[in-house]
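Bug #2210: token dump truncated for Glycosyltransferase family 4 protein?
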Amino acid sequence: MTAEAMEAGPGEGAAADADPSLSGRGRGPGEDRPLRIALLTYKGNPFCGGQGVYVRHLSRELARLGHTVEVIGSQPYPVLDEGEGLAGLSLTELPSLDLYRQPDPFRTPGRDEYRDWIDALEVGTMWTGGFPEPLTFSLRARRHLRARRGEFDVIHDNQTLGYGLLGDMGAPLVTTIHHPITVDRQLELDAAEGWQRRASVRRWYAFTRMQKRVARRLPSVLTVSGTSRQEIVDHLRVRDSRIHVVHIGADTDLFSPDPAVRQVPGRIVTTSSADVPLKGLVFLVEALAKVRTEHPGAHLVVVGKRAEDGPVAQAIERYGLEGAVEFVKGISDAELVDLVRSAEVACVPSLYEGFSLPAAEAMATGTPLVATTGGAIPEVAGPDGETCLAVPPGDAGALAAALNRLLGDPGLRARLGTAGRARVLERFTWARAAQGTVAHYREAMAHAAGRTSGGPAAPDRSAPGAGRPAATSSLPPAAPAQDADEEVVVANRESRATC
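Reproduced locally. Full output below:
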């Protein structure tokens, strides 16, 4: 058993809002049996971006609880853990055309690569400036799951929110929404300069209209923080009673203190998967320039790909920081952990996060944290001055002041590092996340069984258009799956809705 599993304790409710009855009290015969779980993810990179990390760690802990977990994913394919207790964990590859792969993103496939109409839809959406993967993966997943009806007890979608996942797929559906992508869209629009750039951003994020429509029709939504829960209500207009918070966390066996790792004086480490406004990296670069006036040896290591152009590259050049900012990518888990351990300070400068795994992971190593108050970060990082130093998002001056304070005070670094580790062990582990998730799987299964025996569930009257005649709806009814020809018509019509 892992350390975090032992720390979670047997039968503890991991879901932040789970009823204690979901943990096992009052179930009928056979309701504690291991589950057969299909875990869907349209992007699975476990080293860059929260979705892949979520799938990797949650699938491992679900398998350790004794469930059979089949991860069904597209490129970049998930990398799953192996080892004792993970015999029930497997990966099924559901390939796309991989249009955004390196080193040739936005590529045009060869004629022999096209397999069906979904491939043509994927390419056509990309050619017109849209992002097709949530829709096309959902259509491929629907076809795959329909062909395997009866093999799964529950289907868990990891934020695809595509039209293909509506209707009967042969098992109850539970969906995780980490945070509404509409938040990312608005931040990028706010930062866009010129009407052409704004038009491009709107077209790229056109799939969020589909995600809004799908989210409002989902029977059970999981999310990772109270902040994300409120954002889902406000942005996606999902009924609050359908949303359940299950906190995620750090792999506390891997991300742990190690006194043998030498700290590098002046080292600040951060994680930024892309040069986008949401991540706030440009403010950290500006803050570093200020910090170096007091601590000339201060330098920044960014876990992520370096953009050759863009706001961050321009800021590094403007402040003369070429030798003080290093980007690393493609490193192993062990290398990542040692990098975080070697830093005097970890920093999360994001303008918004639905949870912030980098914050939890840094705290788990005992590395003191400077973090903004954007989105759900305070839920993870804790109170200012107790488990971290907290600053307003988008404020380079406040970031610099907090970094200067920590770099100049070894006692404060030690105190915050110890308190941060304790907070993660108490609240944010993957073992707890798996327990809470299973509780909601069983709740969804029980609800679906009751609906089958007692008639259809009531419509969501809180959603726009609820209760209108079917002819005026922008979506097909959530009914048994169409045949192939009907499916083409539905997908073509709905894909236009994202334009």
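Output looks complete on our side. The chain has a mean pLDDT of 85. Marking as cannot-reproduce; reopen if the truncation happens again.
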